[in-house]
Design brief:
Phosphorylase Kinase, domain 1; 3-stranded antiparallel sheet; 15 helices; homodimer; 2 domains
């Protein structure tokens, strides 16, 4: 039966549930009793099952009514599954082939069954292992440029855009997680914060007293709350990207809402920078990951430049929104002026991106949710060195985003800090 | 009977309709047949009836399914009455005593019955007549500061704010009027544009080719579409304000939605500046309105300074929102830094205000909807002189808003342009 009441699914429940969905059962193949089901969720919020049948496999994601990372003491609405489904189908239209296909959605169970991605792995794991991904830049910049541009006022008539904003406004509990965990908590005393102690104690305390940082992050928070520029993924770190050498898939858009574009682009760039600065912590012999690290910095540069190129190209060809009406920029002079304005627009978006990237780095080192780029560095002092370098870079990017005139300035700063010795004392 | 189907009310329909509403009938007093009913709407969109009974009077506003100024060829959704009612009740809570009390609302009829304001007149008419209003600055700045601050992310938790944005997102048809008539049409050839010809022909053509203007107004348009800073009135010109020497009432918030605060403040200031620059056109002897004009410029200055003072004061005492969390600005240093940031915030808001004020001026001279400040100047050349001065001021404000460092810079520029001779040629 199709349930219309939420319950947390165990493996046997799930088997029964899927068996009565003809399309799913057919795709899996064989007798339901023969399907293998394993719960593999390693994210912070949900259950994720892999179901393998005789003919094929699927992934099933079910939202829990609380934050998995913390437990039942931190409730979280199931409606996030509704928004994830809405975002997934929207992204599939705008950026075909770059998100997993939805096979089934059950609103009451807060459940989405989707294409199982194989042999893809979570990009973050690949980066920890030092793997390069030749398709990544082209795919992620297509995803970013198309999902952001094509949901913005540059592409969409104002009425439709306002309806889109309203459709995602109910996802405020997920936004609130971001507002608190990224833009607020790392900068104040909050019990759930943690960092690599004792090495980062001084830096953490300094960040909690750094009013330049507090002003900068508060400005970004305000922009996050009141700048519905486009339908953003809202959690686009390297743990939300699955990759092979030949494919890239963006998953887990449950934080989606209409927000500032720079938040998504910054998430990608901030997480690549963490991958870069964590890399030396994964060396088995000094310098053995230098080629990988060079690829990562090139990738950071290309993510911005390719994104910007594709975004501006869409603006030239798909500008069907109410922003910058073509009739105000007619003729050769108008076209030239609009092109100059596009560059000014991209410069502002770049500045936002730099700031948001920095905020994403800081929260992963001083806040609640950490990432394996650093966590898998066993020696805590060695980890702390990588983290201290990242914090140093991020602080500069957050407090003085406008001083980074180009993405090359960001990678140069990253390169410099890569060899900086934090000098934790004796 | 209470209708659940929309129909345009004639006077007799309205009498029957009101007679069956006990509270209204009681307030009017006497036999329904004795009530006098007159349609007095002089706005661009709706029917407005004054109903006078033996005991009291009320105003009744009914939305028409089209733009009254243009006719049935320009349909407009009745739902604007829903948003007007929502905004009126919201404003009454935030700024008590500064909006008319709602007595009855009929969603199906798109009808709102409200307190009849007597002996108030539309402020714009008073300004054309050269009347000063001693209460105006204090009242309008209280209205602006309280309605804007108290609906912003500085005062309201993020979830509630997002619900507010969604609640008004359906009012997009009214927003679209603003997007087109204010931010687009005056800068391109559109049949419904008009201006005082032939004197302004050259200026109108120059504005249609002025790419600096087109970039500046397009940036403001984008901000109007994607900066839900607060619940704004959305049409706060001097025709939406009713006054006596002792009272100020803000009416007609049917354009309300979550938008940029500077749009409301700019509307007030832009319309006062038009009153100022139109004033010489209403002289009966040279210079006989100089005292009035001086009051108007003082009023422009005080509207900004008093608004800013009250807004910042609310920020110090009523900051219950998610923006700029107090915990990030603890202690004396934190408090000082937050105060500096408030000033930076107000500087940006001032810059927005200057730009929006300018856009509101230009649309009234080169676009579809004009205003009596200029229209009642009979001699068209004399009118054109006042309008040309206004356009000159507005262009500077729109293209280079950031160069106006203070409201004093704006009034100085207005004073200078007041005596500028446009020199229309022979």
């Amino acid at each position: 039966m199709t349930s219309d009441e939420y319950r947390i699914l165990r493996e046997t429940d799930l088997r029964d549930y899927l068996a009565q969905l003809p399309a799913i059962a057919c795709q899996l193949g064989g007798a339901p009793a023969s399907w293998s089901i394993s719960e593999v969720g390693d994210g912070n919020l949900n259950l994720v099952f892999i179901v393998r049948g005789g003919a094929g496999s699927i992934a099933v994601k079910q939202a829990l009514p609380y934050v998995r990372l913390v437990g039942e003491s931190w409730p979280l609405p199931l409606s996030r599954s509704h928004y994830e489904h809405l975002a997934l189908t929207h992204q599939a239209r705008l950026a075909p082939g770059l998100v997993p296909a939805v096979l089934h959605h059950d609103e009451a169970l807060a459940l989405i069954a989707m294409e199982f991605l194989e042999p893809h792995i979570i990009m973050r794991k690949g980066l920890v292992g030092g793997t390069t991904y030749p398709r990544f830049v082209d795919d992620i910049t297509t995803f970013l440029a198309r999902t952001l541009f094509l949901s913005s006022d540059l592409a969409v008539p104002a009425a439709e855009k306002k309806q889109g904003i309203a459709a995602f406004a109910g996802n405020h509990a997920l936004c609130k997680i971001t507002e608190d965990l990224i833009f607020t908590d790392p900068y104040r005393i909050v019990e759930q914060n943690r960092w690599t102690s004792p090495w980062l104690d001084t830096t953490a305390a300094r960040f909690r007293g750094d009013l330049d940082l507090h002003v900068a992050v508060s400005r970004l928070k305000l922009k996050f709350m009141a700048a519905p520029e486009a339908l953003i993924h809202g959690d686009l770190h390297t743990g939300s990207i699955m990759v092979t050498e030949r494919e890239t898939q963006v998953i887990d858009p449950e934080f989606a809402f209409y927000g500032p574009m720079g938040f998504d682009i910054g998430a990608v760039i901030g997480n690549l920078l963490m991958g870069y600065l964590a890399s030396s912590g994964h060396e088995t012999s000094p310098g053995d990951r230098r080629t990988f690290e060079a690829w990562l910095l090139e990738t950071v540069e290309s993510v911005w430049t390719e994104f910007a190129r594709k975004f501006v190209e869409l603006w030239r060809t798909e500008a069907k929104g109410d922003g910058y009406p073509p009739t105000l920029f007619a003729g050769a002079n108008g076209a030239a002026r609009l092109d100059a304005e596009r560059q000014a627009y991209m410069a502002q978006l770049f500045c936002d991106t730099v700031g948001f990237a920095a905020a994403k780095i800081i929260r992963r080192i001083l806040g609640l949710a950490h990432n394996i780029d650093f966590e898998l560095i066993d020696d805590p002092k060695r980890r702390a060195i990588c983290e201290a370098r990242s914090l140093r870079l991020a602080r500069a990017m957050l407090v003085d985003a406008a001083s980074f005139a180009s993405i090359g300035a960001v990678t140069n700063a990253a390169r410099e800090v890569r060899d900086w010795d934090p000098d934790f004392g004796a």
